[in-house]
Amino acid sequence: MKLKDDEFLYEQAVLKMRKEIAKGKTFAQACEILQEVEENLRPLIQDDFLKIIVAEQHFGQGRGIDDVALLLDLPYETVEASRERIMTEFDELFAGQLSPYISKMTH
């Protein structure tokens, strides 16, 4: 039951943060709504939310990392690090999905 509650809180927090960004708030200002969320969940939600925004804005809409950083009022390095994490996670996921097929082809 705890997992479902955490998932619900996570989804609600992300929705609220999206609304704050849509209002023109900065990333830090959007994160202020997390004060009502359990402290141990906050870093996970913040990290995921940043990756969501980077994926949507950079990969989805073609905005430069510098523009995304300006939109969120974050240092370029923070946004670039998030982009790199996305790419690493994608590579790991993709490699994991392909490994059974590659194994069959090489044996």
Please tell me about this protein's structure.
The chain is mostly helical. Helices cover 79% and strands 0% of the residues. It has five helices and no strands. Helix 3 packs across helix 5 and helix 4 crosses helix 5. The longest helix is centred in the last third of the chain and has 31 residues. It is globular and about 35 Å long. The N and C termini lie far apart (44 Å). The model has no long low-confidence stretch (mean pLDDT 88).
Task: Describe how the helices and strands are arranged.
Layout: H1 2-22, H2 27-31, H3 42-60, H4 65-72, H5 76-106
Helix pairs in contact: 3-5, 4-5
Low-confidence stretches: none
Distance between the termini: 44 Å
Q: What is the N-to-C succession of helices and strands? A: HHHHH
Radius of gyration: 17 Å
Per DSSP E runs of 2 or more residues, the count of β-strands stands at 0
Beta percentage is under 5%
Count of separate DSSP helical elements: 5
